[in-house]
Amino acid sequence: GAVVSQHPSRVICKSGTSVKIECRSLDFQATTMFWYRQFPKQSLMLMATSNEGSKATYEQGVEKDKFLINHASLTLSTLTVTSAHPEDSSFYICSATGEHNSPLHFGNGTRLTVT
Amino acid sequence: AQTVTQSQPEMSVQEAETVTLSCTYDTSESDYYLFWYKQPPSRQMILVIRQEAYKQQNATENRFSVNFQKAAKSFSLKISDSQLGDAAMYFCAYRPKETSGSRLTFGEGTQLTVNP
């Protein structure tokens, strides 16, 4: 079945630094990728939708200059948390889908801790 | 806008028993997808079952089945013969049937505990 690889699975960084999270579709062309944030015991909150080759669409309340999303190819999207602060500590999950409303596949998530 | 509601933050069941998780949704669309996802402590999102709205027959996957009531906009998940490995957070989700790139909208989740 289709696989989405998300890396790293865990990252600890110091406040003020930037962190990049990668989401790769390994065996299909991901025309659309979604980035979610999840706090403990809560649901997944959609942060942004990215389409290959175009700018990401951010959900209301999500700072686009804080959470930079790049979807430069059909197999890779990246989320960069810039100037990270402790309140950015969270679990981030990507998902990807191909053409014609094909199934969504999730990465395994990244646990970000900002100290 | 579509919304998904799970009114049971927590549920528990005895091993080998049956449990039903509730989900309601709101949409003006006539065709769409509904899903149940399982998220164990590893936090990996695992697809449990999928239903297409135009199909009247309720989806079934082994011990998991749904009761899809389109008119009532209800989509409950029944887990039969519960096992310890079923303990997890369960999310109901809605996805419109657009041409491409449509997003999932998740409910708040139900934390299921399975008691031995």
Structure, explained:
The complex is a heterodimer of chains A (115) and B (116). Chain A is mostly beta strands. Chain A is 0% helix and 52% strand. Chain A contains no helices and 11 strands. The radius of gyration of chain A is 13 Å and the shape is globular. Chain B is mainly beta. In chain B, the strands form 3 sheets. In chain B, strands 2, 5, 6, 10, 11 and 12 form a 6-stranded mixed sheet that branches. A 4-stranded antiparallel sheet of chain B has the order 3-9-8-7, with no helix packed on it. Chain B has a two-stranded antiparallel ribbon with strand order 1-4. In chain B, strand 8 (64-69) and strand 9 (74-79) form a beta hairpin. The chains are: A mainly beta (115), B mainly beta (116). Chain A binds chain B through residues 31-32, 34, 38, 41-44, 46, 49, 51, 91, 93, 95, 97, 99-101, 104, 106, 108-109, 111, and chain B through 42-45, 89, 91, 95, 97-104, 106-109, 111.
Shape of chain A: globular
Low-confidence stretches of chain B: none
In whole angstroms, how far apart are the ends of chain B? Answer: 41 Å
Shape assignment of chain B: globular
Strand content of chain B: over 45%
Order of helices and strands of chain A: EEEEEEEEEEE
Q: Which structural class matches the secondary elements of chain A?
A: mainly beta
Average pLDDT level of chain A = 93
Helix content percent band of chain B: under 10%
Quote the beta fraction of chain A.
over 45%
Instruction: Give average pLDDT of chain B, whole number.
Output: 94
Rounded to the nearest angstrom, the radius of gyration of chain A is: 13 Å
Task: Give a quick account of the main beta sheet of chain A: strands, pairing sense, barrel closure.
Answer: 7 strands, mixed
